[in-house]
Amino acid sequence: MPAGKLTERQPEIGADELITTLVPPPRFDGVRFSTYVPNPGEPSQAAAVESCSAFAERVVEAKPRSGWRSLFGKKAEQGKPGLYLDGGFGVGKTHLLASIWHAVPGPKSYGTFVELTHVVGALGFAEAVRRLSEHRLLAIDEFELDDPGDTMLVNRLLRELTEAGVYVAATSNTLPDKLGEGRFAAEDFLREIQALSAKFDVVRVDGPDYRHRGLPDPPEPLADEELTASAEARPGSTLDDFDALCDHLARLHPSRYGRLVDGVSAVHLRGVRPADDQAIALRLVAFADRLYDRAIPVLVSGGSLGGLFTEEMLAGGYRKKYLRAVSRLTALARDAAASPVSG
């Protein structure tokens, strides 16, 4: 049976859906603090579980901001309104962030940094603040500041939300006072970045990428004929030319990438090769994240997924993003190899 094509899908997300769809992705539906298994050789991981659990308890027990004032009209000390999980890729930061979200009663919201900025763009700043201010918790995964506009926007957003009583938990591969480093003239916006970082207690999560512990190298690309046969044999799978998919991703806002792959059983990409430029590469990072969120196996022909980003790109300011994408795509390729189609 011929496979479908991602390039023929035109996903849409209505403005009214934007807030209601801010929930953890399917891969993290069932995670909890109790299901996080710390690496015995990395004490920071067990400590991070304790810190995240304590933060969640503080959010649960917090009274409305209007009740935090003493007889003299000053707010009682409640600690910083934010918790920031910093560490390399594959150490379980998203697991811990989703665990915080699950531990806190609603209303609450969870989204990637890209999804959050899209919410603000689609609803308008004032309306986004109004809706999100009604929540106890805002969880932000993959927190990155890629340009000065984002820096100003997010700093203002988090300032207004935390003043309204919203707690914020975030993950990133970059310490908050280093956000934007190597990507734009961060020193010109140092005051904004420092104001942003002052809202967070930083929790470090160290360790090797759990997705690669003791596992073999990524599987070799398939021949084009094998790729087509796999796509046709897997109900619900898609088959696209890599270059055509890259062009299609350029026409969609990254916040739609999750909707693009919803319901897909496996993604097949023909003619994979290194990304041409930074814009394509960053779209592929966002696409890889949404595939990983949904645990969708990936099979390719042409070049290796490990060579998706050039050495020049890996030496630049987005190095951590690219390495995370390679790590996640490799895990998804292994998933595909572990569940071959029976002939």
From TrEMBL:
Entry-linked Pfam families: AFG1_ATPase
Record keywords: ATP-binding, Cell cycle, Cell division, Nucleotide-binding
Keyword Cell division recorded: yes
Gene Ontology annotations of biological process type: cell division
Originating organism: Prauserella endophytica
Domain of life per record: Bacteria
Protein name (record): Cell division protein ZapE
Gene: zapE
Coiled coil: none
